[in-house]
Amino acid sequence: MGRHIAFVNAPTIGEVYPTLPIVAELVRRGHRVSYATVAARAEAVAATGALVVPYTSGLPAESDRDLRRPERADYIATVREGFLGEARTTLPQLAPYFRDDRPDLMVYGMQSLAGRLIAVRDELPAVQFQSFQAANEHWSIARHLGLTVTPRPGLPEHQVQLDTFAAEQGVDPDAVRAFQPLAQLLLYPRFMQFRAETFGERHHFTGPCTGPRAFQPRWTPPEPGRPVVLISLGTVYNRLPGFYRTCVEALGDSPWQVVLAVGERTDPAELGPAPGNVTVAASVPQLDVLAHAAVFVTHAGMGGILEAIRAGVPMLTVPQTPEQEVNALRVAELGVGRPLDPAAPTPGALRAAVEDLTSDQGVRDALTRLQTDLRTYGGAPLAADVIESSLP
């Protein structure tokens, strides 16, 4: 007999999309899944068969042009503040719902403090998941990059803020500190994790959790015999019209079919007239495009990296955050991509980098090895197995 499993997650595409095949698998196995998400993700979540539990996010919308990338030294503190603020916004919306319809298990994203606090408050067994490299006493993004984390002037330390918020919500701060999920799902392969050998048996490297996206339009190349380059900097810190103009100048009127996904924060008109071989869109069905692509210019988000490896597509990385920086470093170490010059690349340098990458047999061989490795991972069925094994 199926059980009630709740998912509470951050609203970004990079966090939601990897969970959809897991939810679909749990629904297929007969479980009732309640998934808390925002209106922009509701169609995608509902397509899995889950019940959408709607909430309004306090995070900037994907069309918000005022969002600015934090200074590198401030990034971690800014992210912590942002997700604590999101918990302040979402917990009052979600806590009553899950009190009235108590789940048998809480599955929450690492950045979703609301899910964690509900699990502690209601004494629910829980599984945590994340789609970015995990930290422990041996490794973290901050230590790897030599970043320090300091609170904003006039604000207490993050843990003090979290303790205060928990107490305000009637949750014992000591219980929150002591809380440990039964399992942690890392929605990527072990080879993407720095110091992977230091993570114990509670950490489950699932490999990529990828499935059909019926909620997206299909895509095929307009000119099947012409090579495709996909360019995307994700859905968050993607307002870089100058970079996109460089891409158009570099690859316009070239042998390439260029698919340029600029996000909702950039008006395609800002790039000027697009040559006939360049398609500019807010978003594209990335799995379909990668199936035909020869090169992927990417911000090095974990989801896109895994989709590219799975499709056998080499990468040029343009990371925008520390999290993406360590991903790009790992991509280079694994030999399946190269970084673009962090300074603004010239059109000539960008075009040369694209062309050089396609002719590198070493990169092709590395991609083949990692594709073989990926096939050894359980993906969404493995994640569903871990979740089921955590049910009381």
Folded structure, characterized:
By secondary structure, the protein is α/β, with parallel strands linked by helices. The protein has helices at residues 13-16, 20-28, 39-46, 75-100, 113-121, 141-145, 158-168, 173-178, 241-251, 286-290, 302-311, 322-334, 347-358, 361-374, 379-389; strands spanning 4-8, 32-37, 51-54, 105-109, 126-130, 183-186, 203-205, 228-232, 257-261, 278-281, 293-298, 315-317, 337-339. It has two domains: 4-207 and 377-389, Rossmann fold, CATH 3.40.50; 228-374, Glycogen Phosphorylase B (Rossmann fold), CATH 3.40.50.2000. It is built from 15 helices and 13 strands. Strand 8 (228-232), helix 9 and strand 9 form a beta-alpha-beta unit. Helix 4 packs across helix 5, helix 4 (75-100) runs parallel beside helix 7 (158-168) and helix 9 (241-251) packs across helix 13 (347-358). The model has no long low-confidence stretch (mean pLDDT 95).
Offer a concise description of the structure.
The chain is an alpha/beta fold and 392 residues long.
Observed structural traits:
about 400 residues; alpha/beta; Rossmann fold; 2 domains; 7-stranded parallel sheet; 6-stranded parallel sheet; 15 helices; globular
Q: What is the secondary structure topology, with strand pairs?
A:
Elements: E1 4-8, H1 13-16, H2 20-28, E2 32-37, H3 39-46, E3 51-54, H4 75-100, E4 105-109, H5 113-121, E5 126-130, H6 141-145, H7 158-168, H8 173-178, E6 183-186, E7 203-205, E8 228-232, H9 241-251, E9 257-261, E10 278-281, H10 286-290, E11 293-298, H11 302-311, E12 315-317, H12 322-334, E13 337-339, H13 347-358, H14 361-374, H15 379-389
Parallel strand pairs: 1-2, 1-4, 2-3, 4-5, 5-6, 6-7, 8-9, 8-11, 9-10, 11-12, 12-13
Keywords: Transferase
Protein name: UDP glycosyltransferase
Pfam families: UDPGT (PF00201)
